Structures are given as C-alpha cells and as structure tokens.
Amino acid sequence: MKHIHVCLISEQTIPNILGIFYFKPEEVLFITTEQMLKREKTEAIVNTLKRLGLNIPFFEIVVREDSIYDCHRKIAQWMEKHEEDNFTVNLTCGTKIMSIATYEIFKDYGSKMIYIPIPKNEFFEVYPLKKLSEPQPLPLRLGVIEYLTAYSLRVINEAKLNRYKEESEKRKALTNWIVTNYNSIEGLLSEFYKVLQKSRNVSSFDLTIEFPISNELQRDFLKAVGFNISGRTISKRLSRSEIRYLTGGWLEEYVFNSLNSIKGRGIDDVVMNVEIENIQGNKNEFDVMFTKDNALYFVECKSLSPEDEITKSSLYKIGALQKEFGLRVQSFFVTTSPHIIKDGQIRQSVRARAEQFKTEIIKPDEIVNFETIIRKKLKIMEE
Predict the structure, then answer these.
(1) Is omega for the bond preceding 119 within 30 degrees of 0, making it cis?
(2) How many separate domains does the chain show?
(3) Other CB atoms closer than 10 Å to residue 323's CB: what's the count?
(4) Out of 49, 293, 303, 348, which could bridge 54 as a Cys pair, Cβ 3.0 to 4.6 Å?
(5) How far apart are CA 24 and CA 251, in angstroms?
(6) How far, in Å, are 57, 59, 122, 198 from residue 27 at the CA level?
(7) Bond into 306 cis (ω within 30)
(8) Which range marks the domain in which residue 46 is found?
C-alpha cells in the first residue's frame, strides 16, 4: 500500500509543487492535457522538485479537459491497478471539468482532498467534509531559480550568480557612496557610459580619456576605482566586471545589496544578472530578481540611458517577462535618468507604460531610500 499524491495540471505549477513537497508521497499521479504536455508543465514540476531534493516516481494520465466522460474513464481505468493505495488529492489546478471528475472518483475512496487558494501559502481540506476546516500552512518558500524552473525557464548562467554576489558585496561600500554622492559625480559617470557602453561584453578595455575633474568627490571616486590621474587625463585597464559596473552595474548592485540585506527577514531569495531561456529557445537577461512568499519580483535598472531606451526597451522587457509568467510577477523600475521626469513628476507617457505593465517606478530622488520603499510596498516590518 503506497501513498500517492494526485495533481491536476494547468498553467499554474506552484500549487502542485507546494502540495507535493508538503505531503512527500511515495508516488505522484499527474492528470494533464495535450496542451499542458506541449508546454512541458509536468517536467517543470518534476525538475523543480528535484532541485528541492525530491526525486519521486510519477504517473501521467492525459485527458480531454472539456470531457467529464473522458476524465472519468481514464482515471477509473488507472485506478483499477491502484485500488489498495492511499491517496491525497490536490484539486487546485486543472479545469473545472477535471476537478469535478477527480473529486467524484476519489470521494468514493475516502481520499483526503485539498485546495490551495492562490496566492496564499496554505491549504484547506475540502474532503472529507468537516464543519470547520482551518487552513494549514505550507512552509516551503521557493528561491528564484526554483521559481523559474517551475515555469519551464532555464537559468543559463547559474554557475556565475555566486560570483556576481561576491563582487557586489566587495563593492558595497563604494556602491553606497556612489548613490549618496551621485549628483556630484553624475557627469563623470555619464562620460564613462558614453565611452564604454558598446564595450560591456569585452574581456578588458584600456581606457584613456580627457576629463575636467570639477570637484574633490570626482577625484575621490577615481582613486577608489583605481584610475591613474595626470592632469585632465585619466586612465585604467578595466576588466569586464569594472566596465559593467561603471556603465550602470553600480545601480544594479545597489538594488541587489539592498534586497540581500533583508534576505531571510522578509525576502526569501535574491539574484542579479540572471540570463534565462524559455522552451522556445528565446533568451533574455534581467537585472535583479527576488522571491517573497512564493511570488516572483524583478527589478529593471537603468542609469544614464537615452529616453527611448527607458520608455521602450526597459519597460517592454518587463512586459515580456510578465506575459511569460502571468499576473503574479510584480516589477519595479529603478532609474537615475532625468528623462522620465517633467515638472517634478513622472512623464505621462512613462507612467502610462509602467501602469500597462503593472510596474512601480522608483524615481531618481527615491533611489537612496530603495530598501525602505520596498519594505513599505511589500509590508516587510522593520526589526
């Protein structure tokens, strides 16, 4: 006699992952459809569970999602070989027809059946019937890579993510200094962006430019980064990491460090510079992603980009990923660019685009308070 956990497959994969991880059955039965087979939803669930340390044998039944007769017939046929087993059933996903058929069959076996109200991390026992069914907490919290895996997205550069984290932590003091003194060094950073933006992916770059240092903070910054200064001439052999840092990576690292400082105290996981690929082979890179309570958030950062890149490339990238995931993906757009501001307010065209993609804009004068803003938006209490 085995414990088999039954799942109905649909676009949402997280509820099934939470249920399987909670019950830790000996085997799993996935009831799916042809459409979900093409989208590799079962594989996404199984691969996520493997990342979580669960390698559970599974069965798969393919039904017509609009035919209660087909659902009944195929489930009942499978059950003929498993009548002596014990079952728990997650009714959260699938179509209504699939849920009705599954409920009717497993009710006859006295099976425990649950429902997870998305997006809550808890379940209700809907059968056997009880007068009062108190919600039971689901303790699992997915990290970023587990979440992406659950939606059939592959992280291409997973091996590099820890190095990005280490580099960000080493530069944390300098990054905080840049944010605090940004107005005084903006001209210098703008010059770096103009000269280096097309060389962000080269392994190294010998930079020599003429720049009129106008204040001591600019000089302090150049010394901190390791530049040679001779009159108006500044020079340095830059690594790829340094090139990316000087062309906007400092802003990404500031956002990452702010979120990483509350990891485990409100934020479950955070990574930066994530390169992902979907099952169609389309690839994209995202600045910062983090998870909280099994919801995914991401932050797009732009420092000194032109206005058309702000309103088109960045916000459309946010929209593309939201379409990939669905409504639970929430986003923030952090920028130092003055192009988004008019008369002290966010430009209407930019605001409209952000609202279209359900994106919160962090204005240039708000960046220094990014952690406080995130805490307030996500209702994370100060310790």
Answers:
(1) yes
(2) 3
(3) 10
(4) 49
(5) 42
(6) 5, 8, 22, 52
(7) no
(8) 3-140
Would you say residue 149 lies in a domain? no
The CA-CA-CA angle for residues 101, 107, 111, to 5°, reads 115
Same domain, 300 and 160: yes
Same domain? 60 vs 132: yes
Give per-residue pLDDT as tens, 83-136. Answer: 999 999 999 999 999 999 999 999 999 999 999 998 899 999 999 987 677 899
DSSP letter for 271, please: E
- For CA atoms 241, 245, 248, 254, give the dihedral sign: positive
221 and 252 inside one domain? no
Strand order in the sheet with 228-230: 204-210, 233-239, 228-230
Q: How far is residue 61's CA from residue 172's CA, in Å, rounded to a whole number?
A: 51
What pLDDT does 305 receive?
61
- Name the packing angle between helices 14-23 and 41-51 (round to 10°): 50
Q: Are residues 98 and 216 both part of a single domain?
A: no
- Compute CA 161 distance to the chain's CA centroid, rounded to the nearest angstrom: 14
